[in-house]
């Protein structure tokens, strides 16, 4: 709804969390320090051919050792909040509910959280950003084993609530379960690298495993939330939810087939997780598409799953044009393109093939999620990788014009969604605070608002960091008295 004279114009919330985001394996390095156990990404990223530049996560941005320097930079930026993730295998090196807890791991995050709070920065903590303890993968197949993983994850979550919940009031259970399931067990491009493609993966079954893994992920999330709400929330008083990836889907044209396909694309990208968690059912399209391969929840499980998130956690990067057809189940049997019917491109192309800049899609998706799930939205990731930034000289890379334009469009879309459409948005965390280990891309794709020179580990603010710091203090988003 567009606000008109006489109607109440929604205000921009004064406690809105502006910040930056990162994830443990992408920045920490120090994989053998202070008793950390291996994660599934350790060895996977060392296998030749698994990352574009052949590099791994052993050092990354060395943030485990340089956390004070990172904190000083966050403080210099003057942002209000910082989203980071905890490495499960630093807290419980082997991972399981009967395995030893590592006090050094707890101490590391505890000190970091204290440092953030002293700097007036709100910690926004992800419990799981893809770095499953290798020990659990070896012991029982990790996410493929629902009975075990749900209990082990719930135990790990409880340990974190106990250790950090007196100071952390914003929790995310899982980052982007779609990626864990599809990229790790369907396409085989992420750890643990399972798929049906025997040229790529020695083991795996892309037709069944992703759906089994998705099911375990939903239950693990829901049980952690149940524990938080029953044992911690009454005294600690924080909020907890899941964060999902999802990009806006526009029908390629207005043919009924393509209009339907766009909804199907959203059903698999978002509804697979959001419909069970927020509404209490799986999307019809998925049930039809997968038949007996779609694991069902028991009545008892549904009572834990339905309503298991206090807010909508949203990671979004782009918009796709959707055509019906094709047999890619991971896209809902729809085809994705950025090329319009008239041959033009949707927006500016990023370094990654899957990403173009289209701010209108961000606004549309915020409205879609608000109308469908009716909960406050925390935008926990949004960002852009400038084409060929990695091969530019430093001075040129710091002038990241396309990223600035991306964030200009995105923050304007965000303002419009809040102030004109009345969408309840509570945070905006650009991805990422630093250039970092970009998973299967290695270090060749840079998403940071801060440039990292991997030779020296020196950090340099890009134009986009300066732009975003300015936006959050601009008059229209300043606190209302
Ligand atoms: C985020 O995922 C991650 O949370 C973050 O760790 C990462 O660094 C950041 O994006 C930048 O990539 O072509 O089939 O491989 C973003 C969601 C979903 C975007 C999968 C890329 C590729 C699908 N991602 N998508 S495919």
Automatic annotation (TrEMBL):
Active site feature: 381 (nucleophile)
Keyword terms, alphabetized: Carbohydrate metabolism, Cellulose degradation, Glycosidase, Hydrolase, Polysaccharide degradation
Enzymatic class: hydrolase
Stretches assigned to coiled coil: none
UniProt-listed Enzyme Commission number(s): 3.2.1.21
Reactions accelerated catalytically: Hydrolysis of terminal, non-reducing beta-D-glucosyl residues with release of beta-D-glucose
Pfam family name, one: Glyco_hydro_1
GO MF term (any one): cellobiose glucosidase activity
Gene Ontology biological process: cellulose catabolic process
Protein family: Belongs to the glycosyl hydrolase 1 family.
Hydrolase among keywords: yes
Function: Plays an important role in cellulose degradation. Shows hydrolytic activity against several glycosidic compounds.
InterPro entries: GH, GH_1_N_CS, Glyco_hydro_1, Glyco_hydro_1_AS
Protein name: beta-glucosidase
